[in-house]
User: Which sequence fits this backbone?
């Protein structure tokens, strides 16, 4: 039950249904997701270790704010790892698989529609994870998978302020063509540009005066 609670709560936090800075009551959360307080308490303790929530004396728990340092660290790691995954995947990819995944991303999202934003982010993550797995390096793919989870919350907050659907569709198309042709250096460069563009969007959005971030 604790693992179930961890999975459910992590999903709620990463998709920002539980917003940064929100106060969480063990009793209320237990009632909302239909589990007992004991697994909820254990799950929150686990998520605290991941930095997603914080214990607040006499107030329960709060969802951690997204910090500027978090953004730089997570996207910095993505910039190190994902271009290398693209370089390794060049010439060995299932281009049709990537095109199918990209077609879901190309459907876009409505910035004011929470469900469509989350569906878009799920599709975008699936695209990047599939590409990482095609690199042939399982450890590299797992690290990228974890980083994509962390960046999902940042992107969910940032995408509400700006629609990058068209830009990302163009970036994915160019990347898929380079991968299919086996152009490793180009694929790595396209991936680096895409991740850097997402980082810039997130930083611009989350440094706005009303953004839920902390320095």
Assistant:
């Amino acid at each position: 039950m604790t693992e179930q609670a961890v999975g459910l709560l992590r999903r709620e936090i990463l998709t920002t249904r539980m917003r940064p800075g929100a106060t969480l009551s063990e009793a209320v959360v237990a009632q909302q997701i239909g589990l007992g307080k004991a697994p909820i308490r254990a799950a929150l303790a686990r998520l605290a270790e991941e930095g997603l929530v914080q214990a607040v004396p006499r107030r329960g728990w709060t969802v951690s704010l997204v910090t500027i340092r978090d953004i730089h660290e997570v996207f910095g790691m993505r910039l190190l790892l994902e271009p290398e995954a693209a370089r390794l995947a060049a010439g060995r990819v299932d281009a049709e698989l990537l095109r199918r995944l990209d077609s879901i991303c190309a459907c876009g999202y409505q910035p004011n529609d929470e469900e469509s934003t989350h569906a878009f982010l799920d599709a975008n993550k699936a695209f990047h994870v599939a590409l990482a797995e095609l690199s042939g390096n399982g450890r590299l793919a797992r690290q990228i998978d974890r980083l994509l989870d962390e960046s999902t919350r940042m992107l969910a907050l940032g995408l509400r302020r700006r629609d990058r659907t068209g830009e990302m569709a163009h970036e994915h198309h160019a990347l898929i063509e380079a991968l299919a042709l086996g152009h490793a250096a180009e694929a790595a460069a396209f991936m680096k540009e895409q991740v850097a563009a997402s980082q810039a969007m997130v930083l611009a959005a989350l440094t706005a005066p009303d953004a839920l971030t902390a320095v």
